[in-house]
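User: Thanks for the earlier help. One more: cyclic-guanylate-specific phosphodiesterase. Can you show the sequence and predicted structure together?

Assistant: Of course, both are below.
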Amino acid sequence: AKTAGKKRFSFYDQSLQSIAMAKLQLEDDLAIAIKDKQFVLHYQPILTQLTDEVTGYEALIRWKHPDQGLIYPDKFIGVAEETGKIIDIGYWVIKEVCNQIMLRTSNLQPPLRFSINLSPKQFKDTNLLENIRHIMQETGVDGRSLEFEVTESSIMEDIEHTNSTLLQLKKMGASIAIDDFGTGYSSFALLKHLPVDKLKIDKSFITDLETDLSDQKIVHGLISMAHKLHLEVVAEGIETKEQHRLLKQYKCDLGQGYLFRKPVPMDHLQNFIYKPL
Ligand code: C2E
Ligand code: CA
Ligand code: CA
Ligand code: CA
């Protein structure tokens, strides 16, 4: 038993070590990925719930790893945030979206907004506004083509900073959405003082919407409350027609999900129109 215990212990040590090694490897690989431009963006349409018209696209990052194939953000955004690499990655995303807008939107029907996810680290970056302004000037993108998605945790940490940053982004013409709404600790009381345009209800509330009566009440309540504060509501992760039907019934403004379209590269979006069956 003693040797078995010992064995297990050393095995445990080894696996901890290999986790640490894997993280270091990931960190190195991320640095190379930035340098060698191994990231790509996929775009997922956001549609009006009632008429199924596309109003915009959310840009979602993927990593084309030379050995491991396509890696999804949940696998690397965390480490990118911990190591600060998210700052450079984030600017690449903003630049890439702006370049794509200038290259491709003649083929897409305007007026469309392109949504960009900002992690809390990026939101706190003191150069954020200046860099966004610079990118807009360089590419010629109209700020009204952009939407920034920020999470509840980003905006609740320092309300004064949040307020002034969001106001500046809005002055540039961009709109603001609160991402993953309902999963954090933000309150409607605070939200009503912030220059926010939209709430994105997290997909964890949508997944079981058909069967879960509490989720139905929460989602319906969030939508009514948001409307009272003149905020638009986007539901994410819509996969079924029944979810879509309930959300329409609750007067949800906008929707996004596999029911309509999975995120795809920009060139797959030309002429994309969702036709309900
Ligand atoms: P998110 O911002 O909440 O994005 C929504 C996620 O739900 C995306 O996952 C999207 O592909 C997925 N999704 C959309 N519709 C459906 C559906 O009907 N069913 C299901 N099951 N999933 C759906 P993805 O692309 O893997 O991104 C995961 C997260 O990574 C994002 O969550 C966001 O927090 C982060 N992320 C993605 N791109 C970026 C980026 O450029 N910058 C930063 N900072 N974070 C990013
Ligand atoms: Ca998002
Ligand atoms: Ca989400
Ligand atoms: Ca998220």
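User: Great, one quick takeaway?

Assistant: The two ends are 64 Å apart (CA to CA).
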